[in-house]
């Protein structure tokens, strides 16, 4: 069994850019998905809040506030 002084690591100038690019691509994909999925959810939530405020105001007016 051969023991190495230190574990094999590819040279940083070779290894780094590829990993960074992959990370950026993954981050970009995640952000895109988050926007595509989250946008409608936030829009729906905002509309529901507006509707709720309208209902509250209408109810208060009906009660004579």
What does this 3D model show about the protein?
Helix content is 80%, strand content 0%. The chain is mainly α. The chain starts with 11 loop residues before the first helix and ends with a helix.
Average predicted confidence as pLDDT: 81
How many strand units? 0
* Category by helix and strand content: mainly alpha
The major beta sheet can be summarized as: none
Percent of residues in helices comes to over 70%
The outline comes out as rod-shaped
Low-confidence stretches are: none
Measured between the Cα atoms of the first and last residue, the distance is 87 Å
Helical region count? 1
Radius of gyration: 27 Å
- Report strand %: under 5%
Order of helices and strands: H
**Oligomeric nature of the chains:** single chain
